[in-house]
Amino acid sequence: MDGRPRRSGQVGEQASARDGGSDALGDEDFAVELSVQTPVLRRIAGGMTRSPADADDLVQDVLERAWRGRRSFRAESALSTWLYRIAINRARDLAARADSARTVPSGIDDIDLPVSRLDHPEVLAESLADEQTVRAALATLSVEDRMVLALHDGEGWTAPRISTVCELTVASVYKRIHRARIRLLRALPGVSASESVDSELCRKTLVHASAYLDGHLDVETSTRIDEHLRQCPRCPPIAGALVGIKTALGQRPWSSAMPPDFVRAVDTLGNTNR
């Protein structure tokens, strides 16, 4: 454990009496489902927060809220989706105050300020291979950026699934994924950023880089980018760096084992007095 005090309330504290309806899960079944979802929930929380302790706090908060609100859950919807949405909204709420100083001013779009060059590709490669360095870079991002990277690159969620759970448009999700990757790239050693680029083709290539690498562009645009990458001396290393970021995040560098007492707290669900 990290020595930080845990909240005194038990995960399975008694909810206020409410009618659950005939389609609500029974308490024991609900508790079992929560236990099944907890490992994935904590992994996602780890990607959205800045430390394992913060991830534990977030998951405990989500489980407490889910348990108290279990009468409002309807079995025709996926419990996992319900839990993920609670976690995402709580992460946003909790980070709003802490991240206020990190918010990008209205009107400024990082996608239009691309990475200018890779001064030391070998340093970047070493950074991406080091989990601590990647975690430190992720900690500089906003919760929204960490969220889309954790879900898309870490968990392998599709943009449509992210849009449903996070209540965003699919186009917005794609844009956020690219923006977050660029921000993460800038936070790593060996990378420089500039408001200027070599050409309009370079700018367009870097704007569409993530969509190109993820296979989400139309054939005509992809062909133009293919041709540009064959001729441009600057853009291919940056595109390769974005591939490296996606690969590194696929290893879920934020993952950590759940503390034993946290596991025990989850296991008590459904066994409390009702």
Automatic annotation (TrEMBL):
Q: Where is the Putative zinc-finger domain?
A: 202-235
Ranges where the RNA polymerase sigma factor 70 region 4 type domain occurs: 133-184
UniProt-listed SUPFAM superfamilies: Sigma2 domain of RNA polymerase sigma factors (SSF88946), Sigma3 and sigma4 domains of RNA polymerase sigma factors (SSF88659)
Statement: the UniProt record of this protein carries the keyword DNA damage: no
Residue segments, region Disordered: 1-25
Q: Which is an annotated GO molecular function term of this record?
A: DNA binding
* Lineage: superkingdom: Bacteria
| NCBIfam families registered for this protein in UniProt | sigma70-ECF (TIGR02937)
Q: What's this protein's family per the entry? A: Belongs to the sigma-70 factor family. ECF subfamily.
- This chain belongs to the protein called Putative RNA polymerase ECF-type sigma factor
Highest lineage ranks of the organism? Bacteria, Bacillati, Actinomycetota, Actinomycetes, Mycobacteriales
